[in-house]
Amino acid sequence: MKQALDIGKGYKEKYGFHEEEKSVFKSKKGLNHQVVDDISDHKGEPDWMRAFRHKSLDIFLSKPMPTWGGKLDDINFDEIFYYLKPSDHKGQTWEDVPPEIKRTFDKLGIPESEQKFLAGAGAQYESESVYHNLKKEWEDKGVIFLDTDSALKEHPEIFRKYFSTIVPPDDNKFAALNSAVWSGGSFLYVPPGIHVDLPLQAYFRINAKNVGQFERTLLIVDKGAQAHYVEGCTAPSYSTDSLHSAVVEVIVMEGARFRYTTIQNWSANVYNLVTKRSKAYKDATMEWVDANLGCLTADAQVFLNPKGPISIAEVKKGDSVYAVDLNDLKPKKFKVNAVRCTGVKKTYRLTTQNFRTVKATANHPFLTLTKESYSAYPKLAWQPLEKLKEGNLIAMLTALPDEGKPYPIHYIYPQIAGRGLKHPVSIPKETTEDFMWFLGLYLGDGCIERDAKSKRARRVYLAVPPNDRARPQLIKILKDVFNTEWKPKGISVTIASAVLADFVLQLGFDGTAKSKRIPKWIYSLPLRQKLAFIEGYMEADGHVRHGKKGGAIMEKGQLAFASVNKKLLEELKLLMISCGLNPLKISTYSKERSLLNYPAKNYTTHYLTLNLRENLAKIRKKEASQSMIQFTRVRSIEAEGEEAVYDIEVDGAHNFIANGLIVHNSKLTMKYPSIYLMEPGAKGDILSVAFAGAAQHQDAGGKVVHCAPHTSSHVLSKSVSQHGGRSSYRGLVKVYPGCKDVKSTVRCDALLMDKNSRSDTYPYMEIDEKEVTIGHEATVSKIGDEQLFYLRSRGLSEEEANSMIVSGFIEPIVKELPMEYAVEMNRLIQLQMEGSVG
Amino acid sequence: MPSLLKLDNLHIKVEGNEIIKGLDLEIAEGEVHAIMGPNGSGKSTLAYTLMGRPGYEVTQGKIIFKGEDITEMEPEKRAQKGLFLSFQYPVAVPGVTVASFLMTVLQSLSKTGNGRFAELRKNFRKNFKENMTQLKVDPSFATRYLNDGFSGGEKKRIEILQMMTLQPQLAILDETDSGLDIDALKIVSEGVSRYINPERGVLCITHYQRILNHLKPDFVHILTQGKIIASGGPELALQLESEGYKAFGIVEETRGTI
Q1: What is the pLDDT of residue A98?
Q2: pLDDT tens-place string over residues A771-826
């Protein structure tokens, strides 16, 4: 099992996750005054900040652990790196950002979206901000949008005036911790009367393990100014081993208006230690809009049409991926609406009876077939990974629909001027079965000889001995397809054609036995051509062996593919799945051997095995399998490390196929921001939408504190629960004595899509003044059979009816959102609802 | 006259109980039929079943609509074919305005390729305004959320407004008269009367005779214990009104309608 697919490794190398050694400075583990000094030295901070950090550390050390939230004792403060600096310079332009960091953010489309609809953007990696940029138009008007460290250096007066005024170090133990070791975060200052009409956005990313992230965000909107700050959709998530203790301070001055939107975020943390607080002064308006979307694993391979399988991290908006139509349980193409990294989380590896494997977070839902009792009729249901047990039935793909077309070939040999071709060869116009068989054989047994000096490809070698059963067919294909001559050389067949050699390389077959890969274009071929390719490869690297328990070879025997190239076998396995074959596991054998008189060396070979009986005939006869979903049993679920996890949104289906397993997309969670209304006329709004899907529990709410008379607040919380999900509203409204004429309304609406879902409301009111108007209203509505039938009787399909009910339900919030977010939100709803039957 | 709806020895079960126990009925184009019966006689069950409500199982017999067997058809498909049910208890859809609801419905219906709905969709604005005026529905209702906070009478009017917008071929009115005051009843009945033409039919299900004064049914049927026990002309309704269900040997059942 240790040797099962480990695509995650490649992912890490590729995107620079866990590149701890690349950091230019890392503090010692643990927390003491020395660490604080180190951080301060490193940042070259003024003395007052150094003193502030030391004072905060003393407060942190003196305060007892909070007694709420039980498991806080598990945090080992000595095992955490408090500061990790990934790079020496911060980018002003995107090009300045170090490449390995840039790659990560490029994947998330940051520079692209910045140009399109943001006034400015910032990005933080580990403890330090790596990029911050503001459009010139706003810079000229005096708007400051920087990372917090730079702001301290460049704008010390404004910074010192407001820093820590909203959340002082002695507010709570974790605010003290943040104050002692804070690093990075966003700083925004909007001068009086300036309206920044495009949103400003920040992205956060955590990379290494056991690193605390303590960003400090300070947002100041001066008198009569307006702005909208959006917390990036790729903000990190923190596993239980990491510690996240951010502080967000927002100051909205007289007559100003500010909105803080979190459209997506990460799932609820065990330690919810983020302190997000805002103060609104005279006649100011502060609004929190909070919504949140979850995750699948980072390294899952998704079948992309027509490009073949790619890592989920590489999927782009607009691609077509295969997902399952739940109406007929057949895989179909769907458009991808969005891809997002949802942070670094603890993952688990699920392996099925037939060795399909995927890594996912504990809450990621899989399509399962369950029985409520022994005699009950089995039901399709989405179950989170944590609820799955060995032996449970989960859905897998048997084959993709055969929608491929022959690959057109436009090949021109890059001829060297003045030199003729000695050995002519015909190049086919498009792929054929024979041609693909040849490439499959080449993949296993072929290589290219290059000119020693010019490095130009000269000859094709195929190590197919004269008595090999593949040799006659090879000879025939060389004649029929390429119309070329060949010569024996040793046991090999050689074709002295620079054209053919170059052509093979151009098709994507470069590399040695250890580095060859299966080109993606092969996935776009018709089934028969794909199977011909597999057959060709089988002739080279495949063999038949007896089953471990003996028995007749055709019954119990195995078809094994041996290679030193594990990646190649992993790709072959996915290709096989797409063809309706049923590959089992890839096992690895290592042995120390000495050849002749050379010193002993370790040789490693990987084997991909298939059941001979069900697969050989399919390969030989090139039979189509019915493209559909079957159920297979869970073999094991094992804990894996933390990794970046990804999710994709698929248009029209709310699932997708990862590594041949059908998984559900998207999970939503929420947070609790707070607003302090400081002076008369201040107004605070909290709007939140939560979706609770299969076996999820979403908490939503907020806190409003009325510190002055004539202030008003409005909390609107909407939650939708479906497929057995649960959502809760948790909120506090506090009115201090003497705050007359306070108006506050709290409205929590819950919509239950089915009988198994639930909703709870926990409103807390601390009202110490009599002359106030406080309203609390909670409604729970159910999409009942009656409602559904009513809409259907008018001509709407069940899906349309569900979608209409949910859209109507959240309409009061959506109409408050700026246009692009309203569209985004509505699309989200459609996605959540489509394909969700009954 | 061509047949619109034909029920032949219809048996209906709900949650395992047989509610309709062998019902025959035929409605031809241009006809208005009334089904009267005491509470619990199966009137609403019949209405729901005709519209295809899930859980209402036809165990015997068939529902033939315009010559086609629709017994197993989904409700939305029946709507496409031209069947409409005015609900006894219309359901609220908060957040969706009456106008956008009807527009969405027409959009969905025209997706089926039926030119009739495409035409209705094209003329939606104009017709919608006219219909509102005819039914004396305040224009503000167009932008109010469907049935959300409407009074009983308002809901019924909006049901008829929906009927007039969708122009079905057979309208089933399930106790549309209940909850209406005398004036409202008159307006609603006039709306229905205007809707009737030689190609359309109405099946009016009611407990009381009063709506029939306006609708003037061609046939009246008395339903009790899942069977039609008497059929006749409008005079049957009058007889029922003056003599009561007891005259037909019916004891008012206590079981509520479903």
Answers
A1: 54
A2: 898 888 888 877 878 889 999 999 998 878 887 888 788 777 666 555 545 554 55
Q: C-alpha angle B45/B80/B16, rounded to 5°?
A: 25
Q: Are residues B95 and A812, on separate chains, in Cβ contact within 8 Å?
A: yes
Are A648 and A296 spatial neighbours (Cβ–Cβ below 8 Å)?
yes
Residue B53, chain A, CB below 8 Å: the answer is: yes
Tens digit of pLDDT for each residue in A614-626?
A: 788 888 887 776 6
**Same domain assignment for residues A472 and A361:** no
Q: How far apart are CA A216 and CA B223, in angstroms?
A: 74
Most B CBs within 10 Å: which of A720, A780, A791, A813, as the mutation test of the B interface? A791
Question: Could you give the number of structural domains in chain A?
Answer: 3
Domain around A193: 20-66+75-280
pLDDT of A405 above 50: yes
Q: Does A763 sit behind a cis peptide bond, omega within 30 degrees of 0 on the bond before it?
A: no
Q: Tell me: domain B3-248, CATH 3.40.50.300, correct?
A: yes
Please report the sign of the dihedral spanned by the C-alpha atoms of residue A134, residue A139, residue A145, residue A148.
positive
- Give pTM, 2 decimals: 0.54
Could you give the C-alpha distances from A105 to A95, A98, A122, A239, A771, in angstroms and in order?
Answer: 12, 11, 11, 21, 52
Write the single-letter amino acid at A328.
Answer: D
**B76 burial via Cβ count (<10 Å: 0-12, 13-18, 19+):** buried
Residues A737-781: tens digit of each pLDDT: 999 999 999 988 888 887 777 788 888 888 988 889 888 888 887
What residues does A706 pair with on adjacent strands? A677, A735
Domain harbouring A356, CATH code: 2.170.16.10
Contact B80 A795 (CB under 8 A): yes
Asked if this assembly's ipTM is beyond 0.90, the reply is yes
Q: Are residues A343 and A204 in the same domain?
A: no
Mutate to test the interface with B, among A327, A755, A783, A789 (most CBs of B within 10 A): A789
The angle subtended at Cα B235 by Cα B229 and Cα B240, nearest 5°, is: 55
Neighbours of A736 (CB within 10 A): 15
Looking only at the bridges linking them, the beta strands covering A558-563 and A601-611 are antiparallel
The reply to whether A266 and A299 lie within a common domain is no
In a domain, residue A704? The reply is no
Same domain, A248 and A306: no
